[in-house]
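Postdoc handover notes: sequence design on the structure in folder B. Input tokens:
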């Protein structure tokens, strides 16, 4: 199962928000936009890590499926319920992304375990996630930035805890993350549209 234990909770670059807070989607959107390498001509890749074989670990592929349905123009989505990215294919998929995209900027999405009082919180921050760290798997770190959802408590019997995580919580967290990313995309699309219109007006004025 792909999780981490929320090791980066104390990183000052991280933002935490409960999935059902009123401003959660806006907070996620703003944090993503503040980190994107705009103007650097880099492909933006959303890497949704996890498997639907474990309820708690389904956060990533659920989020990827919701995003895929939105047909995002400026973001490329990898990792869905149909085509999950998990322990057996992670390295292969990362190699595929780097071979098919120009200087990609990766946003990794994963489930994690944490303190009981942190369950339901979404963390957004710079740097990669370390999939499998919470269940003692050695897997490559992924992402230039990350979004992780604390789906249950850590400390003991992690595999069992993940299997017994409530699907309702994971589903609602995935919807919040996907909606936040979609808001960031809509704002990016608006900015691109305004820039295109300004460039068109400039060309018309020079004729």
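Designed sequence:
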């Amino acid at each position: 199962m792909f999780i981490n234990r929320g090791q980066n909770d104390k990183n000052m670059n991280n933002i935490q928000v409960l999935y059902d807070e009123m401003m959660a989607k806006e907070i996620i959107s703003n944090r993503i936009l503040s980190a994107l390498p705009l103007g650097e001509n880099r492909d933006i890749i959303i890497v949704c890590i996890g498997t639907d074989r474990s309820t708690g670990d389904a956060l990533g592929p659920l989020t990827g499926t919701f995003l895929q349905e939105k047909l995002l123009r400026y973001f490329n989505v990898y990792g869905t319920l149909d085509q999950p990215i998990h322990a057996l294919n992670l390295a292969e998929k990362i190699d595929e992304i780097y071979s098919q995209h120009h200087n990609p900027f990766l946003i990794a999405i994963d489930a994690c375990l944490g303190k009981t009082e942190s369950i339901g919180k979404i963390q957004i921050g710079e740097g990669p996630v370390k999939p499998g760290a919470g269940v003692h798997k050695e897997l490559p770190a992924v992402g230039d930035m990350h979004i992780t959802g604390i789906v249950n408590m850590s400390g003991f019997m992690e595999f069992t805890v993940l299997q017994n995580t409530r699907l309702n919580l994971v589903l609602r967290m995935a919807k919040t993350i996907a909606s936040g990313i979609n808001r960031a995309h809509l704002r990016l699309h608006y900015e691109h549209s305004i820039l295109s219109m300004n460039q068109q007006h400039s060309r018309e004025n020079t004729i």
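Context for whoever picks this up: The mean pLDDT is 87. Don't rerun without checking with the PI first.
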